[in-house]
Amino acid sequence: MTTIAEPPAEVVRRIRLFRYPGLTVGGVIVTTVIGATLLSLVWTPYSPLAMNMRQRFRGPSLEHVFGTDQFGRDVLSLLMAGAQNSLTVGIVAVAIGLVVGTALGLFAAARRGWVDEAVMRVCDFLFAFPAVLSAVMLAAALGPGTGNAMLAIGLYNIPIFARIARGAAKGVWVREFIYAARTAGKGAIRISLEHVLPNILNIIVVQATISFATAILAEAALSYLGLGTQPPAPSWGRMLHESQVFLSRAPYLSIFPGLVIVLTVLGLNLLGDGMRDALDPRHAQGR
Amino acid sequence: MALLDVQNLFIRIGRPGSTIDVVRGISFSVGSGEIVGILGESGCGKSLTAFSVLGLLPQGLNAAGEIKFDGRDLLSLDERDLCTLRGNRIGMIFQEPATALNPVQTVGDQIAEPLRLHAGMGKREARAEALRLLERIRLPNPRGALDVYPHQMSGGQRQRVVIAMALACRPSLLIADEPTTALDTTVQRQILDLLLDLVDETKSGLLLITHDIGVMAEMTERVLVMYGGVIVESGPTEKIITDPAHPYTRALLRAVPQRALGSDTWLESIPGTVPAPSERLQGCLFRTRCSLAGPECEIQPALLPRGPDRVAACWRLPQIEASAPA
Amino acid sequence: MKLSLLHRLLSWAVTLLAVTAIVFLVLEILPGDPALVLLGPDAQPDTLAALRLQLGLDQPAYVRYGAWLAGMLHGDLGTSYTYGIPVTELIGSRLKVTIPLALLAMALAVGLALALGIFAASRHNRPGDYGVMAVTQIGVAIPSFWLGMLLILFFSLTLRWFSAGGFPGWEAGFLPAMRALLLPALALAVAQAAVLARVVRAALLDVLGEDFVRTARAKGLTRAQALRRHALRNALIPVVTVIGLQFAHLLAGTIVIENVFSLPGLGRLIFQSINQRDLMVIKNVVVFLAAIVITVNFIVDLFYLAIDPRLRHAS
Predict the structure, then answer these.
(1) Helices in chain B by DSSP H: which ranges?
(2) DSSP letter (8 states) at residue B109
(3) What pLDDT shows up at residue A15?
(4) What gap in Å lies between CA A236 and CA A80, rounded to an integer?
(5) B117: chain C residues, CB-CB within 8 Å
(6) A12 HSE (CA, 13 A, CB side)
(7) Is B89's pLDDT higher than 90?
(8) Which pLDDT does position B269 carry in this prediction?
(9) CB–CB of B282 and A4 under 8 A?
(10) How far apart are CA A252 and CA A243, in angstroms?
(11) In Å, how far are A73, B105, C29, C238, C311 from C307, measured between CA atoms?
């Protein structure tokens, strides 16, 4: 018989990190973005709102790493402050989708039959309204604003969470410990909350991460259209809208905000995919 | 020279740094018009042996040794040459007719495919030949079957289609992996009869893989009994049935009457289970379930001749022969 | 088959009706007074009253909803408040930009996705596969409007191969018009192609593990032939589903992209109508876009029947 010596723990850790490189890279990016956002609450290199007409259109330099805009504002400071807005919209929108969608999904899975059918029909229906379309409607009815953007993106996320929660919950409902809970006389709602929800939380968290990424993209698009964050609050999408006029004069004004969006979305997606792979290695092999 | 001649075949699951041998140095041959069976429980490596002949081992598995077909070593052929042999000179019949057929293609197209690929037939010619094949496998209403999808057929009919596909290019070697396991008993009968007739007609060699002693006894002329990736006994079917040598073969045969009495799980009558290859057990793998096992069984016994055309690998053979003939 | 077709047709009609109800609710009931929305908060009371009468707002909501639906059935969607021309005419002229744009983008996305997905699946767990997966991961993260700006920066402002926006109209000829749509379509297509390429790859890998692919290989088909002739069509079912869902995103994406490239399409129309508070246009265009989405999904359902004979013979 041959025995294989256990490799030292350090090596194991290194191998694991290497096995999920997306998780590591995504984690680092997301931590950096969140860190910069928190930092912007107390400190930015310059005031994101202070205009300085003498310092307009300065290209990237040591003084202004990402340059200055048409009002002489520091782009890095604007991006840091804009992150607050992007992350807030993302968190609220995902929270709306997560809470309502998961509740609907759990309900459908618990009740089955026509209730299940009805909930899924409603989800199909909601899918007919992409986030931008519902945002357009809400903006027309109630006027543009961050709140409507959050609501529109949240609505779009409801059917996504509902479907995922329903699918996962149905898998849990046929497990033995559910039968045990049912014979103990627990009701459907209590079982859903006490036994089903904890078992599908992994999947929900993964989806929340990925939905967060799409929410940031949607917020940027809405703000670009002027349907999201309103001036003077700094926002990545609106910075891009304002910079388009100066595309040939100051291309860096359009490049940096876009790169920040790409990086943030990429980080969140890598983190979400990486978590899914790490939580479910079988899934990872298939991919 | 034999049609198929396998020498010292190893099949490995290769993970960098550690490999596990699933099949460990087996040798056998199949002649033209001959029906040779490989008998064993699931997990003994018999299906992998079949796939290695076609060069279609699942990803991560590798074959080493020598597989000579018509004098050519298949293991040293490149993928392109293998493709010209598969479905052309070597036909394969699968276990599960429900999944072996493409659900979105008509039966006629699927049978015509190897004809167009290997025989260079045009669309109409291949269709006409497919019809002849469907007639030959005695499918009711063969003309109508051409344009039917697999899901519209019964299991037995599908298996006939799988056989027709394997036979399309008149291969000199047929490999059948548990061809009747997924079918009802009465349908099993018909498929086995069909196979026997076809082999008789075409004079191709047939390598039949099965765990069913009944099927083996009825169909094959020679049999290899596999256990844990090695051949433990081989010889003419009739002699092995009437006078098994290896304790494993004897246990299998003892289990047969119980099955006839209605018990499905006939293998349970041999205590224990097949050790997984990952356990890396040395010596005779059957010793964990063998009533005759002794200390010497921790060393792999060699296949030793036991009468004409027969070999068996067991340290206890002299003792078994001395006790009582089965 | 007839039964399932009827069932799907019915579900299509019901969904469409629900869309009109939601749009009516959000745009005519939720804001309180549509006349106030149209004229803005500074409107004079007598102008407001006159407009209310003109729009029939003195009638109860259900009558207005009914009248809207009835008009819809007759092809009468009312008159645009700002443009002063029938909304149907307005939509008709704008469609000539949006539909070709969306179709071109979809074609680009599907073509790119099939190429990348098949390439990745045929090189599963090898460098080519990892490369494609990394590229798609980045593709998903790029905002379409930013990509549009980069394309303008590179191809229009630097290389001067394309104009930076605008649309010459189909009167200018097919090629000049398509040329104006190429960059916007590409900007729209990249993210969708990235998503779809992953679906194509995953679906193919699923199917490649099936028994019938092994059967095909045993017939003597090479790996590539088995993939093309047997795996691809079976893998198409999840792919078509996603294409259907993506069409919704593409249409919504035109709202953004048409603004980046100043294209006179439906998306730009709806955006301008918001700024001009032209409710008549907004509600009809939203319904129209949603109707396209629902209809595309309905067509996708029919497509299944064409691809999968098992569904055709069921029920």
Answers:
(1) 46-54, 79-85, 97-100, 107-118, 123-136, 142-145, 155-167, 185-202, 213-219, 237-242, 247-260, 317-323
(2) H
(3) 52
(4) 9
(5) 219-221
(6) 5
(7) yes
(8) 59
(9) no
(10) 9
(11) 57, 10, 44, 11, 9
Task: Write the pLDDT tens digit of every residue in A60-92.
Answer: 877 777 888 777 788 888 888 888 989 999 999
Tokens, residue A206: 């993964």
- Which regions of chain C does DSSP assign to beta strands (E)? none
What is the torsional sign of CA A235, A236, A237, A240? positive
| Cβ contact, residue pair A136, C286, below 8 Å | yes
Q: How many CB pairs under 8 A join A and B?
A: 4
User: In angstroms, rounded to a whole number, what is the distance separating the alpha carbons of residues C167 and A153?
Assistant: 31
For residue B124, with 0-12 CB atoms within 10 Å meaning exposed, 13-18 middle and 19 or more buried, which class applies? exposed
Q: Using an 8 Å CB-CB cutoff, list chain B residues near A2.
A: 280
Tokens standing for residue B326? 């089965």
Q: Coil, helix or strand for A237?
A: helix
Distance in angstroms (rounded) separating the CA atoms of residues B258 and C15: 62
Torsion A103-A107-A109-A114 (CA) sign: negative
State which residue of chain C sits closest to B171, comparing Cα positions.
C219
- The packing angle between helices B155-167 and C211-218, to 10°, is 30
Report the residue of chain C nearest A243, measured CA to CA. C149
Instruction: Give which of A1, A15, A18 to mutate to test B binding, by max B Cβ within 10 Å.
Output: A1
User: Among residues 251-270 of chain A, which lie with CB inside 8 Å of chain C?
Assistant: 251, 254-255, 257-258, 261-263, 265-266, 269-270
**ipTM of the assembly?**
0.85
Assess whether pLDDT exceeds 60 at residue B297. yes
| A135 and C CB contact within 8 Å | no
Residue C126 in contact with partner chain B when CB distance is under 8 A: no
- pLDDT at position C228 is 87
Tens of pLDDT along chain C (315 residues)? 455 778 778 888 888 898 899 889 888 887 777 777 777 777 788 888 887 777 777 788 888 899 889 988 888 888 887 888 898 999 999 999 999 999 999 999 999 999 999 999 988 888 889 999 999 999 999 999 999 999 998 988 888 888 878 888 888 888 888 888 999 999 999 999 999 999 999 999 989 888 899 999 999 998 888 988 899 888 888 888 888 878 888 888 898 999 999 999 998 898 888 888 788 888 899 898 888 888 888 888 777 777 777 776 654
Q: From the CA of A11, how many Å to the nearest CA of chain B?
A: 16
Name residue, tokens 């992150």: A83
H-run or E-run covering A23: helix A21-42
d(CA B290, CA B279): 18
Which chain A residues touch B18 with a CB distance below 8 Å?
4
Q: DSSP strand E in chain A: where?
A: none
- List, for chain A, all residue ranges whose pLDDT scores fall below the cut of 50: 1-8, 284-287
pLDDT band at B15 (very low <50, low <70, confident <90, very high): low
Chain C residue numbers with beta carbons less than 8 Å from the beta carbon of B166 are 218
Q: Please tell me the predicted confidence (pLDDT) of residue C47.
A: 81
Residue B83 burial (10 A CB sphere; 0-12, 13-18, 19+): buried
- Could you identify the residue written with the tokens 């074959």? B63
C-chain residues near B84 (CB < 8 A): 220
pLDDT, one tens digit per residue, over B40-59 is 887 788 889 999 999 888 87
State both tokens at C268.
């730009």
Asked if the C-beta of B100 comes within 8 angstroms of chain C's C-beta atoms, the answer is yes
Q: Are B200 and B165 in contact (CB under 8 A)?
A: no
The H-or-E segment that residue A91 falls in is helix A75-111
Q: How far, in Å, CA of A70 to CA of A83, rounded?
A: 20
Contact A125 C286 (CB under 8 A): no
